[in-house]
Specification:
The protein is of the alpha+beta class. The protein contains 11 helices and 16 strands. The strands form 3 sheets. Strands 1, 2, 4, 7, 8, 9 and 14 form a 7-stranded mixed sheet that branches. A 6-stranded mixed sheet has the order 10-16-15-13-11-12. A 3-stranded antiparallel sheet has the order 3-6-5, with no helix packed on it. Helix 5 packs across helix 11 and helix 7 crosses helix 11. It is globular and about 60 Å long. The protein starts with a helix and ends in a 17-residue tail after the last helix. The relative contact order is 0.20.
Length: about 475
C-alpha cells in the first residue's frame, strides 16, 4: 500500500517546472512559427440598427477596461474533412453579429463623467486567419494558462489594462495546425460581458458553425438598465470590496517581479482532505468545492508571500447574480452583460495562516452570502455611480472566479469538444477551471502566477496543507499540483 507521504513525494516529482514570464511573451516548452494573414473586419451579415447603447454601472467599471482572452484547442476530425475552420468560423461570426450587433460597434466616452456608451456602427470585429507549423501532440500531455506561445495565437498583446475607446470590441484569430486541428483565440472587452455572457456569445457562434436551426437558440438580451443606478444613486449595502487596504505599498507582488506559473489540481481525494479540515456541522457539509479550494489557496498564498502578521490580506470572489432565481429583480434569461458582484473577506495575515482552515472558509462563505443578498448588485451599481468608478484595490488581494460550470469545455464548432478551453493567460484573477490530472481523474485546476521564490513556497504550503487532512484511501489519493491532461 502506498502511504500518503509517498504519494505526495511521488506527485511532487510530476510537477512541471514553473515558466517565467513578463506577460509580454512568456517562454514555453513549445515554440513554433505562425504565419498570420492580414487583419480584416468582419461585419454583421445583414444591416443592424444604428443607435447608442448605455452600459450598466456594473459594466462601466475601470477595472473591466481591458480585453479578456480565451483560447480553445481542437483536434482534427475526419467528419469535418474538407471544411476549413477559418472560413466556417468567419462566416458564422458574421451571422452571430447580427444578433449581438453591439459587439460590432465602438465605445465612445462621454465627458466629463467618462461614461462609456456603445455606438452601434456595424463596423465589425477584427478577424485574423493564421497557420502554425505545430501539431496538437507537440503541446505535450497538458495545457494550462499561460498556454504555449499565446502571443502568437492571439491578435493583441495581453494586458490587465487597455484603451477600449474608439477601437474594436472583439478580436478573433483562428490558427490552423499542421495535424488538421486548430486553435480559436479571442479577446473581448470585459465591459461588454462577464464569463457567462461571453460563453453565451461563443455558444451562439458555434450554433451557426454547426447549422443549428433557429440559431441562436438563446436570444441575447441587452437590458443594461437593470444594473444602472437611479439618480441620486441608492447605496443600500456596505461595499468593503472597493475600500483600499491600509499601507498598499506593503504588497509582495509587483509588475517588475520575475514570475513563475503553476497549475494546482484538486480531485476528489484533495477535496476530501480539505473537507475533513472544516469544522463539523453545516459549514463542512455545505461548503462547495470552490469554497474549500478558494479558502485553502488564500491561506497558502498568504503564507507563501510572507506578509507581516499584522498586515490585512483580502480575498475577492466573483458572485454571479444570475443564480438568484428567487430575486425580486431576476436577471433576464439571455442577458450577456456583466451580472456579478465582488464578495470581499479580509483578515490579518498572521491570523489567517495561524488559525485552522475553517476560519478562512467561514470568512469566504459569509462574504459570498453578503454579496448574494437581495439588492446587493444594484447597490454596487449605485456605489460605482456615486463614486465615479472608484479604483479597484489590488494590493494584498487574491481575486478568484469559478468557471468550472461556465461551459467552456462544451464550446463545439463541429470538430468536437476542445482539448483545452479557458483563459490564455493569468492576469488579475485566478480561475478555478475544469481539468484532469495525469491519471485522467476529473477535478479542479487552479493556475497560479506568483513571484518565483513565492511559488516554490506555495507548492510546499499546498503539499503540507493537503497532507494535514489526508486520509489514506488505499493509494487512490493523488495530492498536489498536476496539469490538465490532453
Amino acid at each position: 500500500m502506498v502511504t500518503i507521504s509517498q504519494q505526495i513525494h511521488n506527485n511532487l516529482k510530476l510537477q512541471v517546472s514553473p515558466k517565467r514570464d513578463s506577460m509580454a511573451a512568456a517562454p514555453s516548452l513549445v515554440t513554433f512559427p505562425v504565419r498570420r494573414g492580414e487583419r480584416e473586419l468582419v461585419a454583421p451579415a445583414t444591416p443592424t440598427p444604428y443607435e447608442f447603447k448605455f452600459l450598466s454601472d456594473i459594466d462601466d467599471q475601470d477595472v473591466l477596461r481591458f480585453y479578456r482572452s480565451g483560447i480553445f484547442f481542437y483536434r482534427g476530425n475526419a467528419s469535418q474533412a474538407g471544411r476549413d475552420p477559418v472560413k466556417v468560423i468567419r462566416a458564422a461570426l458574421s451571422e452571430a453579429l447580427v444578433h449581438f450587433y453591439p459587439l460590432a460597434g465602438r465605445f465612445r466616452e462621454l465627458q466629463p463623467t467618462r461614461k462609456l456608451v456603445v455606438e452601434c456602427t456595424g463596423e465589425g470585429v477584427v478577424f485574423v486567419e493564421a497557420d502554425a507549423d505545430v501539431r496538437m501532440d507537440d503541446f505535450g500531455p497538458s495545457l494550462a494558462p499561460p498556454v504555449p506561445c499565446y502571443d502568437k495565437l492571439l491578435c493583441e498583446p495581453e494586458s490587465p489594462t487597455a484603451v477600449v475607446v474608439n477601437r474594436p470590441l472583439l478580436y478573433v484569430q483562428v490558427t490552423r495546425l499542421s495535424c488538421g486541428g486548430f486553435v480559436f483565440g479571442f479577446q473581448i472587452c470585459h465591459c461588454m460581458g462577464d464569463g457567462t455572457g461571453i460563453v453565451q456569445f461563443l455558444t451562439a457562434l458555434t450554433e451557426f458553425t454547426r447549422g443549428v436551426p433557429g440559431a441562436p437558440t438563446l436570444r441575447p438580451v441587452w437590458e443594461r438598465e437593470i444594473f444602472t443606478a437611479r439618480w441620486p444613486p441608492a447605496v443600500t449595502h456596505d461595499h468593503q470590496e472597493y475600500a483600499p487596504l491600509p499601507d498598499p505599498g506593503k504588497d509582495r507582488v509587483s509588475p517588475t517581479n520575475a514570475f513563475a506559473h503553476h497549475a494546482f489540481f484538486f480531485g476528489p481525494g484533495e477535496i476530501a482532505a480539505l473537507r475533513s479540515q472544516a469544522p463539523p456541522g453545516r459549514l463542512r457539509s455545505a461548503a462547495s468545492r470552490f469554497d474549500l479550494v478558494g479558502a485553502f489557496m488564500w491561506r497558502c498564498r498568504a503564507a507563501a508571500l510572507r506578509f507581516d502578521p499584522g498586515d490585512a490580506v483580502r480575498l475577492h470572489v466573483f458572485v454571479n447574480a444570475r443564480v438568484r432565481s428567487r430575486s425580486r429583480r431576476p436577471v433576464p434569461r439571455g442577458y450577456y452583460g456583466n451580472a456579478f458582484a465582488f464578495a470581499a473577506a479580509s483578515a490579518p495575515a498572521g491570523e489567517l495562516c495561524r488559525r485552522p482552515l475553517g476560519y478562512a472558509l467561514r470568512l469566504l462563505v459569509e462574504a459570498k452570502a453578503r454579496a448574494a443578498a437581495e439588492g446587493y448588485v444594484q447597490s454596487a451599481a449605485g456605489f460605482n455611480a456615486a463614486n465615479r468608478r472608484p479604483p479597484f484595490p489590488k494590493a494584498r488581494t487574491y481575486l478568484i472566479s469559478d468557471v468550472t460550470q461556465a461551459g467552456l469545455m462544451a464550446v463545439d464548432f463541429g470538430w468536437g469538444k476542445p482539448v483545452y478551453g479557458g483563459p490564455a493567460t493569468i492576469m488579475l484573477a485566478t480561475f478555478h477551471q475544469e481539468g484532469r490530472n495525469e491519471a485522467g481523474e476529473a477535478g479542479i485546476l487552479v493556475p497560479v502566477r506568483l513571484p518565483a521564490p513565492a511559488m516554490e513556497r506555495l507548492k510546499l504550503e499546498v503539499t503540507k496543507g493537503l497532507a494535514a487532512g489526508a486520509i489514506d484511501t488505499g493509494g487512490n489519493l493523488v495530492a498536489g499540483p498536476v496539469h490538465a491532461k490532453l
